[in-house]
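Task card 7
Instruction: Convert sequence to structure tokens.
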Amino acid sequence: MGRRTVTVTDKMQQGYRYALTAPSGREFDPHFSPDLTPKEMLALGVFCGKYMTDCREEFPSSWFVGA
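Output:
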């Protein structure tokens, strides 16, 4: 995976940058074991649809299908 820098510009953060250094969904700490994926949480209505409405470009579009 090539390194990709993401610049966040939304209502909560302006100009924050971070580098994606691992493939999506890979290389987590071995003790990290969430019950739901981000896509499942969004489909269930987490945050009542109020959060993540202006930052979709930062995350995979597949997370928002059915949300």
